[in-house]
Every structure is written in structure tokens, then in C-alpha cells.
Amino acid sequence: MRKLPFRELVNFRDLGGYKGADGRPIKEGLIYRSGGLYLLNDEELRRFHELKVAFVLDLRSKGEVAAQPDPELPGVQMLQHSGLNHKSGAEIDFSPAGMARVGGEGEEQLRQFLGYYEELPLENDSFQILLQEMCRLSAPILFHCASGKDRTGVAAMLVLYLLGVDPETIMEDYMLSNDFLRENIARELDSRADIVEKDPAAKTLSLMKEGVVPEAGGSALKAILNAAPDAVSFFEKEYGISADELRRIRDFYLE
To answer: How far apart are CA 123 and CA 25, in angstroms?
Structure first.
């Protein structure tokens, strides 16, 4: 993973450098992940244009986009499709009120969230859009949500698994968001110190609100690994990517 010259709160990263299939590293400058592009200041926006990104997938909901739209990016194909669609078709609500629940309500909220993470990587229309762009060998591409940690984190799991990165490294990449967002996490935990010290579920929800937790990432990754015996079978079964297409994708994005 190559860190880029953006403020840490933007959670902007190049997935290049991770070792993929047959020990070949992912090429740098082809696949980026980040928080919302509305977070970019003028200097960061200039740096973004220098990356010559061709395709951006915004994984936020329509309501999030309306409230904080990304900047206009001339020459960039931009698509929005919520990454948090429940199988019922309803968008999942990660509201501040929900993340602040305590006691039994907090435990139930956490249980539901972990269930959502098990569903996220499977038959997800927004991730289908991203993976089909990779089938078209689009580059450079960027995918993002609001903080670049949950929806973006699971999308990155799929991209890295597609390219043959090992599960341990995939999980490490997911958890890296906590390094980028540590100030937000510390502020959240400090503001609820009296609660989180006594309520484990409330602490986990607070960590999920501003960062990521291994329970959530582990649920998503386990769902991926348990869905099929290997990456070839998984992507053919879940996303309709054939073995030949997978080889072509890897030859393009890997050294």
C-alpha cells in the first residue's frame, strides 16, 4: 500500500504494492481507495487531478451525496451506487443515534451490524459495478464512501482478493483505516469515556462509528472465504467473472 500526500482524515491510499497472485505486486497508480472527495481541500484536489483518475465509484447513499456532494471532476466518469444495500433492498441506516445505543439495545445493534457485514461482499450491486470496471481494465480507478473505511474497506477486500492478495494482508489493509482516522477515534472514545469503559458493545459501536473493528472486517472476509473454495470459484459464482477474465484482470493490474 502506498500512502499519498493527502491529509490522513481523507484516508486516501494507493493499493499498489501489495503482493498478489504468483507473487506479483499490484501496479502502483491504478487502483485507489479513499474517503469522500468532498473532503479534499484545494491543494489536495490539485493532487487528485495529477493522478489522472478515469473512473470514480461513490459508494454513499443518495442522501449522503445530496448533503455533501463530491466536487465536479471534468473528464472523470463518476457513478454513485450505495454500497450498503440490505438484501431486502433497503439502505442500511448507520445513524449517529444507532451507533450511540447502549446496554441490550447496543448489543442488538452490534449483532445486526455484524450480520450486515456478512452480507456486504455477496451479490452486492455496487461492488458488481466496480468489478465490471476492472473487467474492462479501467485505470486509474477510485472507489470511496464517506470515511473510506467500511463500504470502501469491504470493496477493497474484494479487489485485493480478486488480484490474489492473501487474507492476512487483506485484513491488515482493512484495519489500516484506524491509523488514518486515529484522531477521530480518540475524540469519540474520549467523549463517551464513562460509557465505553463499562459497556463493551457501546465501545465497539463507538469504534465502528469513527474507525473499524476486526469483528466487522472479519465477518466480511469470512463470508468471502466461505462462499467458495478459492478466488476463481468465488468471483465466477458471486460476480460472474470467468477464470479467463480473472487471468486477464490480473495480467493488467499486476506487475
So the answer is: 27
Domains in the chain: ranges and CATH: 2-253 (3.90.190.10)
What is the layout of strands, in order, in the sheet containing 13-14? 2-3, 13-14, 31-34, 141-144, 55-58, 77-80
Q: Is-contact 84 94, C-beta < 8 A?
A: yes
CA distances from 30 to 159, 176, 182, 222 (A): 12, 19, 27, 27
CA torsion sign for 181, 182, 185, 187 is negative
Q: Alpha-carbon distance 190 to 172, whole Å? A: 25
- pTM for the full predicted model: 0.92
Helices (H) and strands (E) in the chain, counts: 14, 6
Mean pLDDT of 29-38: 97
Residue-wise pLDDT tens digits, 73-123:
999 999 999 887 655 444 455 666 656 667 777 677 778 778 888 889 998
